[in-house]
Hints:
By secondary structure, this protein is mainly α.
Amino acid sequence: MNKTVEGLSGRRKAIILFSCCLSLLIVSMDATIVNVALPTIRTDLSASASQLQWVLDIYTLVLASLLLLAGATADRFGRRTVFQIGLLVFALGSLLCSLAPSIEMLIAARFLQAVGGSMLNPVAMSIITNVFTGRVERARAIGMWGGVVGISMALGPTVGGALIEYVDWRAVFWLNLPVCALALALTAIFVPQSKSATMRDIDPVGQLLGMAFLFSVIFVLIEGPGLGWVHPATLAVVAAAVVALAAFLRYESRRHDPFIDLRFFRSVPFASATAIAVSAFAAWGAFLFMMALYLQGFRGFSALHTGLLYLPIALGALIFSPLSGRLVGRFGPRPSLLASGLLLTVASVLLTLLGPNTPIWELLVIFAVFGVGFSVVNAPVTNTAVSGMPLDRAGAASAIASTSRQIGVSVGVALCGLLAGSALDSTHGDFGAAARPLWLVLAALGVLIFALGMFSTTKRAQRSAEKLAPLIAGSPSEDGRAHAGQQHS
Length: 489
């Protein structure tokens, strides 16, 4: 343990935890707040459907690409320093978002905001695990940290809707500025500097190849329908994605200390957890994006009314996220994964029935079912990812699962234009019929989650993880990567 964190008083530890939770609050709120603001942004900045998708996807793609890098950088150069830089960059990005005169400038500002955001949550979790060293106090601190996710989901749409209704859509970004300022001040005064005793290689080549692949895939999904699938630009980006993926796999498999240890995917539980995370969060990203446009653009609800309709999802997160964690601890991940797959499938099938006059009570039921299904998936995903892993590699497995969550959101938003383009291009017409292919794909993702939840928890799957454990135990990057994973769990 670092000398700088020895002998900290309970009051100082509480303030450190509060400072770290502030960063989680703003980064988590930002996603749902911006979703509610999309219809207003579309009108004010004359944005196309694909540009609205980029407003969300540029943020989640950059987060997914830089989460592991941020953890390694913080371990090497100091967690407090990187956390403070992240707060400054996030605040600057938020300010530029609020001042953006065009949709292109808003997308660029969201890119900068995500760079800052990537330095906040993973590094904050690393600070927490470094400061709260006792088993009981650490568990309590991480429990409070997890509770903030539910609070942010509850506050985000409602607060965002009120700000849009009574102030302006730009106010949803102003909200981040005082929170960042308070977190910066508390961090400077109370958070001790700490570094990892084991330095990890940052692996810039693997990082860039991974980013190139992700951005290429999302570009094709978002821009392909508009450009045309045989357009030279589309074909060039597809070729770039294939080359980037092949180069990434070849480079990482030969590297001594890889960005992502590809051997992890020999474990059925780990590979399944990654697929479940992508599937669940793809459904989540698509649902939030489409519902904001449906409720405000097609039903004519106000931003505040829309925010209030999201409350069943928030309540589901507050109640069922911690309940799922306890169920996983007692019965393992299978019940929660099966429940998640079943509920997401049911909710997606119900979404195919949406029409221009769907009653409010039906919307609330769909939102509640979807919200509970999504809320119960997080704990078992992390548990399944680390199942059978050596203790010193569990952190790295958890970190990759967290990165998969952000990738899933990006894919989900991109699928909206691909599968429901006509529903996005106009506020007229039959939204229900246009969006039906998307909802059916989300239902298929729910079925996949159910099937993987069943398969990944079998004895055969566990044996694949047990066979892998001796191969990766004692790898040179183990300590550092464990830190990375604790950041995202």
